[in-house]
């Protein structure tokens, strides 16, 4: 009789355990159905990176990867939104998330930073005049207040970097309303477009940024660099070319501005930006 009783109890326990679960120590079970977690790994070794900080500034959302490099995005992504990933001794990383990406699984491979890499700006920066159309690219994602139409930052660069080619790298950019961005379907404006933001090195224009996107690289002319001295990067917002009554700056945001020096980087003359 005792054997029958124990058998019944065991069958009840098995029946109460979800069919899609694996029983772990302590009776805790892990859901083995589709998981929505993402993973941060080392690009060179493929090993998981724990305790990486993942931020979505427009959502005021921050989460850290666990011991297996896993993390979940537990906030709704309804439009293009910038996400950044940071970890000591690695290059800052950012990417533009699209609608529904919070329920996707993807892997982020971080690169180790080199002695010649310089972090210029890790924070989300909003340039413009806070006057923009709801149809503007990513207008619904603008959460920070504009710092004005001009961004300026000084940085020191060693002559040891002159052996390679330095590049200014924009981790992510959203909000640009140029004619090219409109033609690519990056905004819904049909009656106007803006001039592109311009980038200056030590007062000399070196590029214009035409479209939104991630990991845009701009070559820094070596003849303009002040080696072993302070240098200045300046970024100016474009203006609405259809507005003549007053200056209407095009609002846009960028994140993770850095300088990378490498002999291996090759940047083609694409339409994304124009070097001078």
Nutshell version of this structure?
The chain has 276 residues and is mainly beta.
Task: Outline the structure in words.
It is a single chain. With 276 residues, this protein is mostly beta strands. 7% of the residues lie in helices and 36% in strands. The protein folds into two domains: 17-113, Immunoglobulin-like, CATH 2.60.40; 114-276, Sandwich (Jelly Rolls), CATH 2.60.120. The chain has two helices and 19 strands. Strand 7 (81-86) and strand 8 (93-97) form a beta hairpin. It is flat and about 55 Å long. The termini are far apart.
Task: List the main descriptive attributes of the protein structure presented here.
276 residues, mainly beta, Immunoglobulin-like, five-stranded antiparallel sheet, 2 helices, 19 strands, 7% helix, 36% strand, disordered N terminus
Number of domains: 2
Silhouette: flat
Work out the helicity level.
Answer: under 10%
How large is the count of helical segments?
2
Count the beta strands.
Answer: 19
From the coordinates shown, what is the CATH architecture of the largest domain? Sandwich
What ranges have pLDDT less than 50 throughout 5 or more consecutive residues? 2-33, 264-271
Using only C-alpha atoms, the radius of gyration works out to 24 Å
CATH class of the largest domain, anyone? Mainly Beta
N-to-C span:
90 Å
Can you write the helix and strand succession as a string? Answer: HEEEEEEEEEEEEEHEEEEEE
> What fold name goes in the CATH topology slot of the largest domain?
Jelly Rolls
Mean pLDDT: 82
Structural category: mainly beta
The percent range for strand residues is 35-45%
Biggest β-sheet description: 5 strands, antiparallel
């Amino acid at each position: 009789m005792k054997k029958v009783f124990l058998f019944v109890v065991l069958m009840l326990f098995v029946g109460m355990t979800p069919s899609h679960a694996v029983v772990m120590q302590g009776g805790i079970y892990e859901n083995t159905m589709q998981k929505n977690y993402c993973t941060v790994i080392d690009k060179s070794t493929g090993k998981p990176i724990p305790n990486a900080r993942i931020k979505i500034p427009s959502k005021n959302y921050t989460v850290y990867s666990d011991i297996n490099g896993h993390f979940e995005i537990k906030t709704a992504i309804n439009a293009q939104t910038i996400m950044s990933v940071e970890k000591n001794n690695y290059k800052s990383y950012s990417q533009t998330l699209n609608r529904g990406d919070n329920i996707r699984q993807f892997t982020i491979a971080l690169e180790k930073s080199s002695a010649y890499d310089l972090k210029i700006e890790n924070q989300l920066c909003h340039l413009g005049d806070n006057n923009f159309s709801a149809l503007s690219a990513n207008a619904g994602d603008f959460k920070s207040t504009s710092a004005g139409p001009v961004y300026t930052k000084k940085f020191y660069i060693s002559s040891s970097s002159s052996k390679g080619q330095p590049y200014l790298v924009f981790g992510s950019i959203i909000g640009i309303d140029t004619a090219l961005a409109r033609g690519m379907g990056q905004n819904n404006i049909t009656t106007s477009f803006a001039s592109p933001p311009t980038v200056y090195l030590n007062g000399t224009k070196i590029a214009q940024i035409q479209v939104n996107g991630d990991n845009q690289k701009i070559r820094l002319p070596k003849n303009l660099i002040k080696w072993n001295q302070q240098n200045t990067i300046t970024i100016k917002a474009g203006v609405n070319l259809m507005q003549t009554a007053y200056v209407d700056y095009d609002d846009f945001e960028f994140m993770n501005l850095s300088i990378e020096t490498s002999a291996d980087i090759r940047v083609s003359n694409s339409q994304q930006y124009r070097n001078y």
